[in-house]
Specification:
By secondary structure, the protein is an alpha/beta fold. The chain has helices at about 25-40, 45-70, 100-110, 125-135, 150-170, 200-215, 245-250, 265-285, 315-330, 335-345, 375-395, and strands at about 90-95, 115-120, 140-145, 175-180, 225-230, 295-300, 305, 330-335, 355-360. It has a single domain, classed as Rossmann fold (3-Layer(aba) Sandwich), CATH 3.40.50.720. Helices cover about 45% and strands about 10% of the residues.
Length: about 400
């Protein structure tokens, strides 16, 4: 049984490397999933969080930008070109690159001269994106690799493929940039092969494990290696309390449990993005401000509200209405606009680190006060490491 689910709820345990795009369920099961998603969204808590709290959170971020403009208090970071070591081409990895922000980011970085590895669960869709970008631009360098962030085996296989590619290049390619962009907004409760909630795994635990295993393979020297974690303004809604390993695996960070009879999808999504932000700042403290000889630049990027397929599991009528209202409020962006904050973070001067990019044009804002909690960040790091270590041990058995 998936953490946080009840005996009456539908839980899909993904115990193989099949991708969500290729995974089909019988019509009755699909209907049950759609019904559960509708029921979960229509719960008062989820409606309040998604309809009110999330809107206020993004407005607060824009208010910070307005304050900076009025009082000229903000710092704008210009994008700087990356010059590769002699005879080498810089490599970047973009997860969730088959559509939306990931696709727009991958295309822009390829135009900037990177060899871009597009990572995602459906390789056929990634190849379609590669061909589409090549038709638009000459002399771009791209490749597609399959990656399922809910599967430990898939993550380790992906890292091995990247390692083999770098070794085979004999120094002609250097891994300089990782963009952890992939994420989901699950409409129903289901668990991964490790027993963790699929949304906290896809949005946080998977990127955590991927990043940790890629660290030894980053280019050392100039330009400095960089990690960009794509987070969300929804992290501002998190009020964390006492956390243990079981709670984290379920996507809960509060000192009260998630509801047991229905899925708290809004809260789990907020928590997953908050954990990714804590991870960002802790990486910054350890590998940029710390004493480690390997120096790394780490950024958070918040695209804002973007019209993508992240809400594909939610009722289509509700999604259409949501986009309509957000369009009226002038808060909805297309993926090319949403990717601007990600690109600002990726291409900021190499000595910049630990910033939260939002709003495009090189602008940054402050994230929530709780996101700078060093004690909590270390605690989440330790718990995440424990969960991932046990998952790897199970994979080896």
């Amino acid at each position: 049984m998936c953490p946080g689910s009840s005996s009456s709820s539908l839980c899909l345990c993904l115990c193989s490397s099949r991708t969500q795009e290729n995974f089909t369920v019988p019509g009755a099961a699909a209907g049950e999933m759609a019904g559960e998603a509708f029921g979960a969204v229509m719960r008062l808590e989820n409606l309040l969080r998604m309809g009110m709290f999330w809107t206020l959170a993004v407005i607060y971020s824009y208010a910070q930008l307005l304050h900076q403009k009025l009082f000229r208090s903000g710092i704008i970071f210009s994008r700087s070109p990356r010059i590769a070591p002699d005879g080498a081409r810089l490599v970047c990895i973009v997860t969730g690159a088959s559509s939306g922000i990931g696709r727009a980011t991958a295309e822009a970085l390829a135009v900037h001269g990177y060899h871009v590895i597009l990572a995602g669960r459906a390789r056929t869709r990634l190849l379609e994106v590669v061909w589409a970008i090549r038709r638009k631009h000459d002399n771009v360098s791209l490749e597609a690799l399959e990656l399922d962030l809910c599967s430990v085996g898939s993550i380790l296989s992906f890292v091995d493929q990247v390692k083999s590619m770098l070794q085979a290049s004999q120094g002609s390619k250097a891994l300089q940039l990782l963009v952890n962009n992939a994420g989901i907004l699950a409409g129903s409760s289901r668990c991964t092969e490790t027993g963790s909630d699929s949304m906290i795994t896809s949005n946080y635990l998977g990127p955590y494990l991927l990043t940790q295993h890629l660290l030894p393979h980053f280019h050392q020297g100039h330009p400095r290696a960089r990690i960009v974690n794509v987070t969300s303004f929804t992290h501002r809604c998190v009020r964390a309390g006492i956390v243990d390993e079981k709670q984290l695996a379920r996507g809960s960070l509060a000192n009260f449990p998630l509801h047991k009879s229905w899925y708290s999808l809004a809260q789990v999504y907020e928590n997953s993005k908050f954990c990714l932000l804590l991870f960002t700042y802790e990486l910054h403290r350890r590998f940029h401000d710390g004493t480690d000889s390997f120096k790394l630049s780490v950024m958070a990027a918040d695209p804002g509200i973007v019209r993508t397929n992240i809400m594909r599991e939610l009722p289509s009528s509700l999604v259409s209405f949501t986009y309509f209202v957000l369009s009226i409020l002038r808060l909805l962006q297309d993926p090319s606009d949403g990717s601007k904050a990600v690109l600002d973070a990726a291409l900021a001067p190499e000595d910049v680190s630990g910033e939260y990019f939002f709003g495009g044009n090189g602008r940054t804002v402050r994230s929530s006060a709780l996101s700078y909690d060093k004690v909590l960040a270390k605690q989440i790091w330790r718990l995440s490491n424990s969960i991932c270590q046990r998952a790897m041990e199970n994979e080896e058995q």
